[in-house]
Write a structure and sequence with these properties.
Blueprint (H helix, E strand, L loop, with lengths): L6 E6 L9 H8 L4 E8 L17 H20 L4 E5 L2 H12 L2 E6 L4 H17 L2 E5 L21 H11 L49 H14 L6 H4 L13 H5 L5 H14 L4 H23 L20 H9 L5 H13 L4 H14 L4 H11 L5 H12 L13 H8 L4 H6 L8 H4 L4 H4 L5 E2 L2 E2 L11 H13 L16
Parallel strand pairs: 1-2, 1-4, 2-3, 4-5
Antiparallel strand pairs: 6-7
Helix pairs in contact: 3-4, 9-10, 10-15, 12-13, 14-15
The chain binds flavin-adenine dinucleotide.
The site of flavin-adenine dinucleotide has 29 residues, from helix 8, helix 10, helix 13 and helix 15.
Length: 505
Amino acid sequence: MSELSRTAVVWFRNDLRLHDHEPLMSALQSRPAKVVCVYVLDPRHFGTTSLFDFPKTGPIRAKFLFEALSDLRKKLQAIGNDLLILRGFPEIVVPELIEKMQPCELYYHQEATDEEMKVETSLVKAFTLQGVKSHSYWGSTLYHKSDLPFEVKDLPPVFTQFRIACENNAKVRPPLAAPTTVPPAPSGVDFGLLPELNEFDLPEPNSDPRSVLQFKGGETAAFERLNHYFWETDRLKSYKLTRNGLLGADYSSKFAPWLAHGCISSRQITAEVARYEHDRVQNDSTYWLVFELIWRDYFRFFALQAGTSLFHLTGPRNVKKNWIQEPSLLNAWIEGQTGIPFIDANMRELRITGFQSNRGRQNVASFLVKSLGLDWRAGAEWFESQLIDFDVCSNWGNWSYVAGVGNDPRQDRYFQVIKQARDYDPKGTYVKSWLPELESLSAEMVHEPWRMEKGGQGNFSFGFQYGRDYPRPIIDLEASYSRLRAEQASNPNDQSRPFHRRKSR
Ligand SMILES: Cc1cc2nc3c(=O)[nH]c(=O)nc-3n(C[C@H](O)[C@H](O)[C@H](O)COP(=O)(O)OP(=O)(O)OC[C@H]3O[C@@H](n4cnc5c(N)ncnc54)[C@H](O)[C@@H]3O)c2cc1C
């Protein structure tokens, strides 16, 4: 094949960036005459989730994705190329494209989960028939898959073992710089229109002043956020102290939406942490951000190891439990109408803004699977639908972990929601911002409004009527904890304890 006539096709997926992009850099190093950068809008991503029929991609995440595509297109245009946007199943439209571009070779990043890997397998099959060479790369984690000190099939069952093995025996590769120039696409390519929400029957999301951040998709905005959090506001140096916050833009990094869409790589963030440590300060907080990125790695490798079992009711550890299917309870949870203020505030924040803090996620997930005993996959699918930072490995990994069917050997742990609420929202400020109907309640009552009745104070407070303006709890929390404790006691291998005592998370 003549080098001069060859076209390199770079297939962008959840890696919407130019920096630290090995497929793009490898394509350029092969000195092709032409380069086609392509993204495929897969209609399956805009269908419904497989079990509970939730929209697979809600409008808030879709908007973020489309902004990221727009940003990538602008960046490619600035260095001599463009982004081709196709619509259809990648395993069909990419081979069709390749057919028109011959001679050519394909470059792309691998994914770690079933649906995405099936698409890759079909593509590779089609290429083999076409006689096209494809090159795939691992690029979504801090530690490269090939640099792990063990095979993925031998992944340590506990995060701490994984982290220590990586920290002691593997190196994080430095991020690759973005290219400064890319050869143009062949003439005559119709690059296609940028997608719009109405194309997928999605409404324009309303912006809400209570959102932790007005997230904007794309590599440009990702670097702006990093610059803000590290350099402009110096918040990195106190991350470990503030990361369990609930209100505001800067209690945590908020990098997750950009990481999930690949607008920034975790290696790039870590390299910037090292620069910050050199230029400003190195402390527990700077380390802790990297520690959290290692959790992200762990869930990605765990997904790779677990395969389809990650999505099964019994989870990767094949744990058999009696899960409840009860739509009215599930709807109350989704709508933020459970009557438990801390749960409802978090669930309303998620539905309205597409974001929820890590503290919130841990609590609402534990409430769904432990206190209500509902099928954990309903929670995972609702998060998949709503989260602006949905990442299949982090989401399903965390859900299976909280449900006790994933990589947590102490499967019976649970959160005591009221204690959590009092610890992390002592004045009820967070709860009141999402449940304005509770505004008149004292800090004492706001997390347990039912106490107004029990304490003989009646159910009125400055016009607020309990049971009318805010629902009574859909379950008895204390009774649910007694049941969980009884289950633990009957489990001879039990090492369980309430989640809130854990130090590290
Ligand atoms: C039930 C449940 C579902 C979740 N679903 C997702 C998801 O779909 N996508 C997602 O990115 N995170 C998910 N998380 C993890 C975590 O809650 C979010 O990454 C974090 O809240 C995002 O905010 P941040 O970027 O400010 O995080 P920071 O606290 O600033 O952390 C920095 C980065 O570390 C990574 N990280 C932190 N905690 C975790 C964790 N527990 N697991 C994996 N990575 C982590 C994220 O990439 C995050 O952006 C989930 C957690 C739970 C309990």
